[in-house]
Design goal:
The complex is a heterodimer of chains A (306) and B (84).
Chain A (H helix, E strand, L loop, with lengths): L1 E2 H4 L5 H10 L14 E5 L5 E5 L4 H17 L2 H4 L25 E13 L2 E4 L11 E7 L1 H5 L11 E3 L2 H11 L16 E13 L3 E13 L10 E13 L4 E14 L13 E9 L16 H4 L5
Antiparallel strand pairs in A: 2-3, 4-5, 4-6, 4-12, 7-8, 8-9, 9-10, 10-11, 11-12
Chain B lengths: L1 H15 L15 H8 L17 H11 L3 E6 L8
The chains are: A alpha+beta (306), B mainly alpha (84).
Chain lengths: 306, 84
Amino acid sequence: VGDDWYQRRRNDVEGRFWRSVARQGPRKGEGGSTQQGIYAFTADGQLLTYRNHHDPAVMREELRKALRAWERLPASRRRPGAVKVESAGKSDARYHHALPPGGLVVNVFTRILDRKGEGFCKGTGSRIGGDFAARDHLWLTEAEWKSLIPVEPKKGQTFDVPAAVRDRILRFHLVDNTRGEPPFWRRQEIRTGKMTLTVAEVTPERVRLKLEGTALLATRADPKQATRGFDAGLLGNIEYDRKKQAITRLDAVALGEHWGQGPYTGGARPGRSPLGVTFELTRGEAADSVPPQAAREIGEYLSTGR
Amino acid sequence: MKIFRQQLLIGLALLLAPFSAPGAAPVPPGQFDRLHALIKPHTDEQKWEQIPWLADLWQARKLAAEQGKPILLWEMDGNPLGCT
């Protein structure tokens, strides 16, 4: 999987290779336009098939076509080791973003919900795929995640989550990305935002903290006038292993009412409706290296000040 | 004096009202675990998630060359494993 926003802009070996493949298909990327879709190609860069379709039956046939095209290639090109892949060399740092050393990656999942009795259930909407969980990652630098753990923790001690972490969560992760690329909140659209940590338990082995917060995010100061907003509460738990000097658990839920949509997230449900966002540590999967969606503007994403 | 003070307090409350947030209900602690599990992707929901995708094109290219296989790339604006 890849993010074409980065790939079509990269001015490095990988970017040039990718564009040489994509331009064999119908999407030439003229004027920097998107080349998104599903591609099958060889390790030496020959396009086999291209299609961009929602229907599984169409895509199944496309995969069969790709395999047939592959099998038509000379066996000498298909055998293991036939293609030599050069080193990718130095990446274009403007369009290749990696987690800062020592940083922490947190999975972020978002889902529309419906009310059911006193609780909630999976939400339903008219947009295809909009009722599935959307995914993203939250990045915390080493200094930031360490700032969440008091040096000398005492049970009952309460303190504010540092502003840089709080604002990153509010602006870039309490968003409705269930139907596509979401607009992020501008700083002034944080109408209220409070996030505190309370030391719930201290033992020689671990420190456990409770995370609580509220936020009102809205495109206008008067939420009734705002075309898009999210009014949410936040609850979570953080556990810190004192021997490993590492956060071993970070689970949180943001729950509230969201309204409105962005240019690429059309098909929102009318009015205010429940939206949930969860946070949890990653589990060592390939997807962990995928940057946060908002990290395209990496300076803004990792910004530490207002 | 008492009436004046009451009126002053009511006036102040009305003045501050437009600036105060309606305030989201807190996440019910008793529902935390259920909500956390509900919002996350479920294994039976989307079969594409069962595919062991790679997120690095160069790594995929090297692996395909070593193993003599073609590459299937799902390329979107917004990484399928990291956005939407």
